[in-house]
Design goal:
The chain has a 16-stranded antiparallel beta barrel. The protein has a two-stranded antiparallel ribbon with strand order 4-5. Strand 2 and strand 3 form a beta hairpin. It is mainly beta and 426 residues long. The two termini are 40 Å apart. It contains four helices and 19 strands. It has a single domain, classed as Porin, CATH 2.40.160.
């Protein structure tokens, strides 16, 4: 099936008419766009979730964030080809900074980042056809809801859904190839991309830290395959399913997750008996829509990791010189579910809107623990958020919300966040 999907656009390319491929003889003017996101928060709990037997201690914390600024560049080239690049600057840029990591017993880590990072979220060449599209380069991963719908006007809350961001990377993109087939209110994405690096898997964030950002190049010894089907038969509603499959052992910085070999095997090979199989399977259902003044969206993500106990044993022994990994045991299964709904009222001007909303989230990053690891209640989290946004046309967005977070045990202290966000697009 994979090879048929990848081969079809090549057939379509060959059959493109002469008129279609010869009309554009020079690149068009580039189009520049993007968005900014600033968040101001107050929390009534401490930053250390392991500070006491009841979880975080009581505290009063104000947090101001220049969360992200995104610059996007698009340009039509020639003969149906175009390129798109998206550069994201998170938390004020980069530099050398200290980070206090509570998952590693409160250790300080020195990282080459000034609270954030600068990276390309997109950088690809695209060929557009009548009922198909081909992309090669760094592409958004066609899985779940947030990777394709993560801009400020795509969600109602002050921040992206916490639940989904704890299971898969936020604004997830990888290097590879994508084919999109579309028609009759259906879309089918097929992607072949580089896989994750299991040194970054953890209890708190499942496989989020496995996105390869630490080194200059991405290892693709274990590629991943993504399939996404989307249906728009019902007016105003977009819904569908997505699936991700990929191993991660051979993408680790060092070949340290290999199978044990008999002594007589060729010791000149890096992995003479192969790597331990650590296949990751992610499945998702998603839906989003708008009907008159009502708008909403929902997502469910489930993850299953093969041989998570082998990953945990190897990660626990990683050198302390290897920074930016948590070394906490990843679960063999995790899930996230969330939904948000809002009702749109008219604002002070004709183009403006006032949207009160509610968001519900439930997620457990250690839904099923690996052998030898504990299933701790603090990794099971449930959020309820209430808020309102004032949208100035589709350019400015002022958001205010309050979130209550409870855990898998009544013994753990309830946490509250109060946030104000300012978003703009250009």
């Amino acid at each position: 099936m994979r090879f048929r999907l990848l081969a079809l656009p090549l057939t379509l390319l060959a059959s493109t008419s002469h008129a279609e491929t010869s009309t554009a003889t020079s690149p068009s003017a580039p189009k520049i766009s993007g968005y900014g996101d600033l968040v101001f928060s107050y929390a009534d709990y401490g930053a250390d979730p392991k500070a006491s037997s009841r979880g975080s201690k009581k505290d009063k914390r104000w947090i101001f964030e220049t969360r992200r600024f995104v610059l996007e560049l698009e340009q039509e080239l020639i003969r149906g080809f175009s390129f798109e690049a998206e550069l994201e600057i998170e938390h004020g840029g980069t530099g050398t900074a200290l980070e206090l990591e509570y998952e590693e017993a409160g250790e300080y880590e020195s990282e080459v980042e000034k609270g954030g990072e600068i990276q390309f979220e997109k950088l690809f060449i695209q060929k557009q056809l009548e009922h198909a599209r081909v992309r090669i380069g760094r592409v958004p991963v066609a899985f779940g809801l947030l990777p394709l719908h993560h801009e400020p006007f795509d969600y109602l809350g002050t921040v992206r859904a916490e639940s989904e961001e704890h299971l898969i990377p936020s604004g997830w993109s990888e290097i590879g190839a994508e084919v999109l087939l579309q028609g009759w209110n259906q879309k089918l994405h097929a992607q072949l991309i580089n896989g994750l690096d299991s040194t970054g898997f953890s209890s708190q964030y499942f496989v989020v830290g496995g996105q390869q950002k630490k080194f200059e190049t991405n290892k693709a010894n274990n590629p991943a395959f993504v399939l996404r089907w989307t249906n728009t038969d019902i007016p105003g509603l977009e819904t569908g399913f997505s699936y991700y499959y990929g191993d991660s052992s051979a993408n680790r910085p060092q070949p340290d997750l290999t199978k044990t070999c008999p002594a007589e095997n060729d010791a000149q090979e890096v992995a003479p008996c192969g790597y331990v199989e650590t296949a990751l399977q992610l499945t998702s259902w998603f839906a989003r829509g708008q009907w008159n003044r009502i708008q909403g969206q929902a997502s469910v993500v489930h993850g299953k990791l093969q041989n998570a106990d082998d990953i945990n044993r190897r990660n626990a022994g990683l050198s302390q010189k290897y920074q930016g990994v948590l070394r906490s045991p990843v679960g063999k299964e995790a899930y996230a579910a969330w939904t948000e709904w809002g009702y749109r009222f008219e604002g002070f001007e004709a183009e403006d809107s006032v949207v009160p909303f509610v968001r519900w989230e439930s997620y457990d990053t250690v839904y099923k623990a690996a052998a030898g690891a504990l299933d701790q209640a603090r990794f099971s989290r449930h959020n309820v958020s209430l808020g309102v946004s004032y949208q100035v046309a589709t350019i400015l967005n002022f958001k205010l919300d309050a979130t209550e977070r409870t855990f898998g045990s009544d013994q753990l202290r309830t946490e509250h966040d109060y946030r104000f966000a300012l978003n703009f697009v250009y």
